[in-house]
Amino acid sequence: MSSESNSSNSITDSQWQVLTTDVTNNKNIGSICESNTPCSHLYCRDVCLTDNQGFVHNYTCIESNDASRSATASLSSTWDTYEARNAIDGSETTYAVTADSLTTHWFKLDLSCVYQIIQIVVYNRTAFRPVRMMGNKLIVNVYDQYINVPEIAVLTSASKQTFTGSFIGRYIFIVKDSSELLQVAEINVYV
Question: How far apart are CA 10 and CA 59, in angstroms?
Fold first, then answer.
């Protein structure tokens, strides 16, 4: 699935903000999307892009309101063939797993734009050591860092965990502060 970013009608904003809008129209969210409907049949979302002067208010067209499908996933390390992209492939039967020998393990999702996120759903690998998810931190940030950033949740070993709210960010991290391996079955990020 592809997504495209456009710069027509962009507004430069030195102190970036995502406007809180009425989300009852799930197709077009944000002042640019609501006033121009530039994405035809695709989902339109107001976003912030980064440039050398800060953030630029813009919009992006995406095929689904699940931004994880077009995101870039990565791991602090990879165990065997359990690659990061397995956590965004739409299947709960494939997994992303870190390798051992680390004191901190992380999974990172780069959405490529700063979005207003309305829901994050995390699926645990339940067939093998589901306790590995227990105590992991879920972090959303505008910047590519997870240190000294407050978490939005501490995860449990439940098979599915849903977090609803208004989170602003480009990067979603799941962080494990121990030498035990980190494993993620699937993650969805709804915008």
Answer: 8
Q: What is the pTM of this model?
A: 0.85
Tokens of 164: 């609803």
Question: What span, in angstroms and rounded, lies between the C-alpha atoms of 88 and 14?
Answer: 32
Can you say whether residue 35 is alpha, beta or left, with left for phi > 0 and alpha for psi between -120 and 50 degrees?
Answer: alpha
Query: What are the tokens at 151?
Result: 């978490």
Which of 14-25 are b and which e, b meaning 16 or more Cβ less than 10 Å from the residue's Cβ? eebebeeeeeee
pLDDT of residue 18: 46
Place of tokens 């309305």: 118
Q: What amino acid is encoded at 190 in this protein?
A: Y
Q: How far, CA to CA in Å, does 57 sit from each of 8, 88, 105? A: 10, 27, 33
Of 29 and 186, which is predicted with more confidence? 186
What pLDDT sits at residue 12? Answer: 36
Amino acid identity for residue 123 in this structure: Y
Q: How far apart are CA 113 and CA 21, in angstroms?
A: 18
